[in-house]
Amino acid sequence: MYGALIRSQAIQAATASEPLSLAEEYAMQQSWRNDGDKLTFITCKPLPDITASVISTTHDASSRMVGDINLFLARDEGNADHIIGELELMVARKEQQRKGYGRASLVAFTNYVLTHQTAIMREYTGSYGSTTKLQLECLRVKVGQDNFRSITLFESIGFKKLTESPNYFGEFELRTLGKLSELQRSLIAPLDYTELSYKKP
Question: Does this model's pTM top 0.85?
């Protein structure tokens, strides 16, 4: 069910993604599991008990999935020791849009990335057989010029447009321009953030 949603033309247009064959989807899933330069979270409906563990195939069943948020890591073209984290956010179910799931996903995921950035950077460098200590310099997102809701959402937590006009592809690039530690402090203040264990039924 969720796979069918993310293959819809509306979602592909909103996320600037291309349709994949079944074989390509399996290859993509394997890549997400093995590659050190990617991280993805599936957004699900809230748990009935916020203190409970997440139970596999129950709390994250396909019927409870509403979207996903992804991180792609790449070296900064201007400084090879600095890493840029690019975010992609999607709420796939139309009936679940404009209910706060996108913002909650973005804030929680960004806080997770910043909390665990040392381990994330270690996995990234290790996947390339390197021991060089790299730094997560900033986060960025590319948004279609007509996707006003997404632009407003990212700006609301501290992302800034790099230019006043969209690029050749009709996209705005937004980045975090200050220290990431300051961004995290601003996110934590209004956030009831808890990391839960993940268990099999």
Answer: no
